[in-house]
Design a protein that fits this description.
Helix content: 25-40%
Strand content: 25-35%
Strand order of the largest sheet: 1-2-3-4-7-6-5
Number of helices: 13
């Protein structure tokens, strides 16, 4: 009955004919250029409203259902109920959010860990292509507003009074928000290890920005693990009562704030001693020269089909460029430049690019003036063709077929991310997937007869237009193969590893791929060999498939990106090595297993243990040669 009532509300949204009024709060001269006139509607509930516009109905329904299902959970964790109605304002893309004038107030607007924008009781959320990130924004918004109401009160008078009395540092509130909304992960543990080893957190109270967020998040996790999660609402309450964070820690934990920080540093220093990974693995690799300025973000590394050139993108505070680098001449040239430095959230996802399989040019997709455009840049003539992409809200990744007739893309369409095959001649597309799961990093393999991609789906059978009905979406991805030539709706799950994230598959031969996995607690490269045998013959031949996966690197640092030219045995990869990301390249074999089983991080061992306890009967029956190491299994 309750589910039916929710569906009835979601099917009949309220309508509003105007943009949100921000009145006298607007800052003179800061109005943003808008390329779309959005018609807003909303869903109304007792404790929150969800506003959306054309194309955002599915996202708004998701946000409504998620808030309904999880708001009490967050209130219970903080031991506090919302005193004022919360407004969620849903944007289909980050580009749309950056065009709005709603809440354009520099003194009041702020980000929660670089994710969620909040202004008083308004939470601004957007879809970036992954529903897991959308969930985090919702949880962060709920958490931050509840913390604000708990500490500062819900009325204007109480807010003014408590703001003048209580001084809460960023690490305290941002860290607590991140702890409640995101939990912990191997990526966060990796960043924390680098920060602890560098001594960055010794001056704790002087931390700002991302450093304050990471330190605060890990400190709240340490408190929860050491003293129990029930101490968290007590700490928040005592901070409000005592009007001092140090007094709050002393009253609840029985130790001074200085002692707590010392214990926290000691705990993680010991945890990261003799850490996993081979410290010498990168010593013999070539290092691609990058700028020391940490504002420069490198991404989209793509080797040319002959392995002689590298295409990549940089983003410097919103100014994004595409570069071509020639290895033999050690020279680079810029082929594209767009954007400008602005004090707003930066979209690092554009442009996305792919080499033409014959090496004649580069296809790239980017956003311009609120629209989505595809370009083809000819290497010889230096001319470019421009096409409008009308069907999609966002393109997250793309890759050519071997004959250059099609490109396979991960695209956002009306609030869900799916795989499509786009025909370049007809400008039409074939939908491979059409469901709520996040399908990413597609690549053609096996002479373009098959497609591999990463996905957080929970089954191997494609179901068209599967709606969100409250199910939990996994934050972990497996590698799947779609038999494109057969249009077979039953996928092959090539990894099937609970609580392990696998991503960025690449072809390295027929029925052979490399992908990234954080199974050891650090993203490293794995090799996968797909074999088949005839299982039965009737009118057609039926095959059984077997997969052999094993790690081929054991780095100490996360591999964030990789590209492989297996015909020329060339590798390019981006690693987070501490102070800044570094790009390494080498000629390498992709099929040689490690001599020894890699060491796992403490967090990876904890995660693996939890996975073993919750493993389903089906997973228990899978044959393996080791609990976390090379295994052969059927799919």
């Amino acid at each position: 009955m309750y589910f039916g009532l929710l569906m009835l509300i979601l099917s009949q949204p309220y309508r509003t004919d105007a943009q949100f009024y921000n009145g006298m709060q607007m800052s003179f001269g800061k109005n943003r250029v808008q390329y779309k006139n959005n018609f807003w509607t909303y869903y109304r509930f007792d404790k929150f409203d969800v506003y959306f516009y054309t194309g955002g109905k599915q996202l708004a329904a998701f946000a409504s259902r998620y808030c309904t299902d999880h708001m009490k959970e967050i209130e219970s964790l903080l031991d506090f109920e919302a005193k004022d109605k919360i407004q969620f304002i849903v944007f289909n893309t980050l580009s749309d959010l950056k065009q709005t004038n709603i809440g354009l107030v520099s003194d009041e607007q702020y980000n929660v860990g670089g994710i969620t924008h909040i202004l008083e009781n308004k939470v601004f959320i957007y879809y970036d292509g992954e529903l897991q990130h959308f969930e985090q924004q919702i949880r962060a918004g709920l958490t931050r507003i509840l913390i604000n109401q708990l500490v500062y009160g819900a009325t204007i008078a109480s807010k003014i009074k408590n703001n003048a009395i209580i001084n809460i540092p960023d690490w305290w509130v941002d860290g607590l928000t991140a702890y409640v909304s995101q939990g912990w992960s191997t990526e966060l543990e990796h960043k924390l290890r680098i920060a602890i080893e560098s001594g960055k957190f010794k001056k704790f109270n002087q931390l700002t920005g991302e450093d304050a967020l990471l330190a605060g998040h890990s400190l709240w996790k340490y408190i929860s693990d050491t003293y129990g999660e029930k101490t968290i609402p007590n700490l928040v309450y005592m901070t409000k009562v005592s009007r001092n964070i140090e007094s709050g820690f002393l009253y609840v934990l029985g130790i001074s704030f200085q002692t707590l920080i010392s214990d926290w540093i000691d705990y993680y220093t010991k945890r990261f001693t003799n850490y996993a990974g081979d410290s010498t693995a990168l010593n013999n690799m070539g290092i691609f020269k990058t700028r020391k300025n940490t504002e420069w973000v490198y991404s989209n590394l793509k080797l040319s089909p002959d392995g002689k050139q590298l295409a990549y993108t940089t983003n410097q505070s919103g100014k994004h460029k595409i570069w071509l680098y020639q290895f033999e001449k050690a020279k680079k040239k810029r082929i594209y430049k767009r954007g400008q430095s602005l004090e707003e959230k930066i979209d690092y996802s554009y442009p996305v690019l792919a080499w033409h399989p014959f090496g004649t040019g580069i296809m790239y997709v980017t956003e311009e003036k609120g629209g989505l455009y595809m370009y083809f840049y000819d290497i010889q003539t230096r001319k470019r063709e421009k096409f409008t992409m009308e069907y999609f809200d966002k393109v997250l990744d793309l890759s050519y077929s071997q004959d250059a007739k099609n490109i396979v893309m991960s695209v956002d369409m009306k609030g869900q991310t799916d795989i499509v095959v786009y025909n370049l001649a007809s400008r039409t597309f074939f939908p491979v997937t059409n469901d709520i799961y996040d399908d990413l990093n597609p690549r053609f393999i096996n002479n373009s007869k098959d497609i591999v991609f990463s996905s957080n789906r929970t089954n191997d059978t494609l179901k068209k237009s599967e709606p969100y009905n409250g199910q939990t979406l996994s934050k972990f991805h497996d590698i799947y193969m779609y038999r494109f030539s057969e249009k077979n709706d039953v996928l092959l799950n090539l990894t099937n590893t609970p609580n392990v994230d696998e991503t960025r598959p690449l072809s390295v031969g027929y029925n052979e791929i490399c992908f990234l996995s954080n199974g050891t607690g650090i993203y490293n490269r794995y090799f996968s060999k797909i074999d088949s045998t005839i299982s039965s013959v009737d009118t057609t031949t039926h095959y059984s498939y077997y997969v052999h996966n094993f790690p081929i690197t054991d780095y100490q640092y996360d591999v964030q990106e990789q590209d492989i030219n297996f015909r020329n045995s060339k590798l390019i990869q981006l690693l987070n090595t501490g102070k800044r990301n570094k790009i390494f390249f080498e000629d390498v074999s992709f099929k040689k297993p490690l001599a020894l089983e890699p060491v796992h991080t403490p967090f990876a061992l904890q995660t693996a243990k939890a996975a073993e306890l919750s493993k389903s009967d089906t997973l228990k029956q899978l044959p393996k040669t080791g609990p976390l190491f090379p295994y052969l299994r059927s799919v």
